[in-house]
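Appendix B, record 7
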Amino acid sequence: MKSKGPALFLLTALFSPLGTLAVEPNHTTPSNGRPAQGTKCPPELEGEANDPMILSFFGKSVHLAFDIGVMKAAIQKVPAVKRNDTVLAGNSSGSLLAAYYSCWGVSEQSTREVEAIVRNFDYSLINAGTRSKMFALLMGRKIREYPHSNINPLIDSLLNRNGKRCEPKGPLMIGAANGDVLKSHDDKIYNEVDNSISFRGRNLGKACTYFVTAPVLEKLLQVPERQRRCELRKIENYEDLKFALFASASEPTFFPKMEETNISKIVDSSVPNHAGRNYIGGYLTWGMAEDYKRSSPGSYAMGSLTKHFSGKIDNLLKSWYTISPTEAMKRGERSMDFQLKPDQIEWDEAIPDTEALFNSGCNIAKEQFRRASQECASFK
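Structure tokens (predicted):
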């Protein structure tokens, strides 16, 4: 059956991971990594799709090459991706791929080109030493955040191709956390139901923002504001898109917060005044699949996950920004119907082995897509 809507390709993050694929019933992980009996099978792998598919890639710090390897397999194995019939979304490093594919389309050629861009990037421009940063944080030391200009060459390479500049028009969704809302204070109260923060009885707004192009804005405006996890900000041109990428990449300890430059672009918000709005990266915006499903309840969510923070680091970040990052990740995971889990990434690498990541992402995804298409047939 032909799909009635585009697939949602949710490429989530600059600073998180990927791995082995498992279909999960009722959002619990089968211990053997196999699809559990009674699990809904991926309609695209079954050859049937009545609703948009959601593909979600959580972030991977400097390990973006792994996601590109997964894309190489997805183009071959997942019909919606092969057809270039996608809605692209992402946070952190995933936002870079989401924007790139939104600009230039999903194809083997565009994937070879982004592979070359990522292979040639100078990773010393990103402060990505996980182990050393964790040690410094736990010792109470200040970590140097690098200037946004360090990743400007990478973003320019992704948004400009063969002398042509990207003008975003297709369906695209990029997430970033609202630093001004989240900045911790003893009297702040977090409402998990609508993902909002209040201070002494005053609503400060939601914890995050989705930067969206017109097609996604139209879709998400169908969801009542009180039910959405994040606020909405328009992407209408090249400058908006570039700003969204910086906002989503500005993770604490990596880059400084990104100050909002055009408050009028924020729409459908319960808070009338956004003075002082700033963005602190995509690491708390894992709910994009959940929110898209609110406007398309029959959608099937497929994607890759990320490594959780250790308890001490999670508690430290919560003390800074009100919400537990790990709990936010887990909520995002619960919206996934089909999961890739990160088992083969060396997280302590400051300079990644891109060739190994390309290969492992592609090989793991190929095997899991093959196994899923065989096993799911028995659970129809």
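Remarks on this record: Residues 7-379 form a domain with the Cytosolic phospholipase A2 catalytic domain fold (CATH 3.40.1090). Residues 258 and 279 are 5 Å apart (CA to CA).
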